Amino acid sequence: MRPIVGITGCTKPVDDTADARLDHRVGDKYITAVMDAAGATPVLLPAIGTQPIEDWLELVDGLMFTGSLSNVEPARYDGPASAPGTLHDPARDGTTLPLLTAAIAHGVPIFCICRGHQELNVALGGTLHQVVHEVPGRFDHRAPKDQPGWEAKYRPIHPVTLAPGGQLRRWIGQDQILVNSLHWQGIDRLAPGLAVEATAADGQIEAVSVIAASTFAIGVQWHPEFKPLEDAASTALFQAFATACAARRHARRPHLMAAQ
Q1: What does the buried/exposed string (b/e) look like for 118-148 if buried means 16 or more CB atoms within 10 Å of the residue's CB?
Q2: Percent of the chain beyond pLDDT 90?
Q3: d(Cα 141, Cα 161) in Å, to the nearest integer?
């Protein structure tokens, strides 16, 4: 039996009416990356608050915290109110933030991508830039707009430098890699307990690790889940995540692993 990886979802109203019902959604690229690059079985976790967290932690061997068009509500980190029209998902915030802290405490491998990377920082006490490209000295980290299509949107567009002695540099085996960039929020004050794993040339934090974690606990601002088997750095990250998930599954269910 393959490791089970829980994938966090978002909510989205099915229409524009005041009483519209919500859909729970996860992008297909996260699902296929978990299956193909991590060799795991994906389970989709709806954004329904804190009630099922203990059950989820018992079920899964790892967790992936996904990207999203929505932003973490600034009240979660005592930030100023968002600009009018900013998309939020309070049901997701109410699910992912406590789930992150519980997963770390229980030694569950976590892979946090884009919004998930930002959620990790907020969950552990950090803050966010709400509009990175308006911060003096920062680049525009939003998706490129000069060409249409997914390939252009997710193409590698700027380098990040991997921290000397960091986990990412050890797994990937390079000092610098090219990454895609599709975000307008980003880490401002780093949370206590996080170590910087990668930075962009403008100083923006692009990857972090949980210092005291007993297993894989990484956040990246870019999107390694987009065609991860076609990029060596993405493949290395998913392999490290897969190894951690398999180790947790073996430790909890040795009889099942031995039967394979």
Answers
A1: bbbbbbbebbbbbbbeeeeebbebebeeeee
A2: 85
A3: 16
Residue 114 annotated in active site? yes
Q: What is the pLDDT of residues 114-134, one digit of tens each?
A: 999 999 999 999 999 999 999
**Amino acid at the residue 66:** T
| Nearest by Cα to 209 from 198, 197, 221, 222 | 197
**Residue 221: beta bridge partners?**
none
User: Is pTM beyond 0.85 here?
Assistant: yes
Choosing from 117, 129, 183, 223, the catalytic residue is 223
Report CA dihedral (121, 127, 123, 93) to the nearest 10 degrees: -110
Told to judge if 117 belongs to the known catalytic residues of this protein, a careful annotator would answer: no
Which residue among 112, 114, 117, 245 is the active-site one?
114
> What integer is the mean pLDDT of 232-241?
98
CB atoms within 10 A of CB 77: 19
**Cα gap 192→7, rounded to integer Å:** 25
What ranges in 60-207 are assigned the alpha helix state H? 90-106, 115-123, 150-153, 167-172
Structure tokens at 202: 């403008």
46-79 residue pLDDT tens:
999 877 899 999 999 999 999 999 999 999 999 9
Q: Which of 73, 119, 206, 225 is catalytic?
A: 225
Beta carbons within 10 angstroms of residue 173's beta carbon? 11
Query: Whole-angstrom Cα distance, residue 198 to residue 164?
Result: 9
